[in-house]
Request: fold
Amino acid sequence: MPEPTLLSLQLDHLNELQNRYETALAGQGYDSLLIASGAAPYRYGDDQAWHFQGYGPFLHWTGLTGREHSWLWLRPGCRPILWLFEPVDFWHANPALPEEPWQQAFDIRSRAEAGAPTLENPGRLAVIGDPGELGDIAGDHNPAGLLRTLDETRVHKTAYEIACLAEANGRALAGHRAARDAFAEGESEFGISLAYQQATRQREADAPYHSIIGLNEHAGTLHYQYYDTRPTGRPRSLLIDAGVRYRGYCSDITRTTAGPGESRFAALVQGMDVLQQRLCGMVAPGVDYVDIHRKAHQGVAALLSASGLVTGLDDSAMVEQGITRAFFPHGIGHFLGVQVHDVAGKPTPPPDDAPFLRLNRRLESGMVLTIEPGLYFIPSLLDPLLASPLGKHLDTALLAELRGCGGIRIEDNIAVTESGAQNLTRNGTV
Reply:
C-alpha cells in the first residue's frame, strides 16, 4: 500500500488535471472528452496479441497500465466516469483494483463489452486514442489542436507525479545495483537481465521500455536489443539502460561499468560521470535545454583531448568539425513521465547541430527530464572519420583498444524546481 502522503497527493493531482483539462476543452470549443485506454493488436496471422501498457492521457489520469478496452469520460464540473473492461472470462483473469482514495474522485463502472460506452448528452464531443480502437464512435476523433493542448498539460508535473517518478527511480536503482553485481560475477547479458528483474520485482514486459544490456562491443549499439545467454570470455564493460514503471510513471537510468583491468576505459567512465554531474548542475528554470546539449559536446571534446584519443585540435575545433558527433551522436535527453520519451518536448524542430535532440525547450519548474551524455566507439561513425582528413588527429591504436568496450552512457532523471533542480536518481547511490 502506498504511503498516505502519496495517496493524498494523488487527489490533488486529479483536481489539477480536472482544471487543466477543463481549460483545454473550453479553449478548443468542446463540451466533453472521451479517452480510450486502447488495446493491444493481434500479431498478423496469429492468435497472440502484443503486450499492452496503455495510452498516455488515460495513464495521466488513472495510472492503470494494462487496462485494455477501458474508457474515461470527462466533462466540466462533473465527476469523471471510468469504465473498466472486466469480461466474464474463464481464459483470463481481470486485474484487481486495490481500494484507494483516488477512486472516490471517479464514477467507476464495470463493463463486459469491449466497445465504447453509450454517452448521455455529450454535447460537442472529442474522442482521443488509437484510431484503430475508435471505429465509428460519434464525435471528433483526435483533433490536432486539442491533442497539442493536452500534451502541454503533461509538461509541468504535479507533486504526485514527481513522487511517483522518484519511487520509480528508487526501485530501478535496486535493479542497477543487482545488475552491476551480476556483471562482477561474470554473468551473461541474459543473466544480468534476470538479476535486474529479480531486484525490481518487475517483469521485462511491464518495464517502461526494453532494457538495454550490452557487454563489451554491444555497449556501442545505442538501443542494443538482444541478450546473449552465454557469458563473454572477457568481461570488459557493461552498459545497462533500464527503468521501472510505478503507478504508470517511468524511470530511465543508465550506468556503465568497466571490467577488471580496463584502466583506460574506467578513467573515461569516471570522466563521463564528472561531466554528467556538471550538466545536471546546469538544470534550472530559464535554462535553454539546447545549451546543455551543446555544453555536453564541449565536455566530450575535453574528454577526448585528456584521454589522448584526439590530438592536435582544441576543444572548439573538435565540436565545430563534427568529431564529437562521431563519439556522441544522440541528444542529451528528453522529457520523462507516463511515457519514457514524454510528449511536447519539441514545439519546434531541433537545431541543425542536434538533429536527434528530443527536447528543445527553455526549462521551467515542474518539468522532469533526463541528462544522458555518452561517448561511444561505433565503427559506422568512426571509420568514415578515420578515413577523412581529420583521421590524422585520432589515435588509432588507442581506438582499437577501446572499441571492444563499446561505449559509455550515464543517465539521471532530473526534476526542475523553482530554484534549481532535484536529481531523482542520485537520491540513491549507484
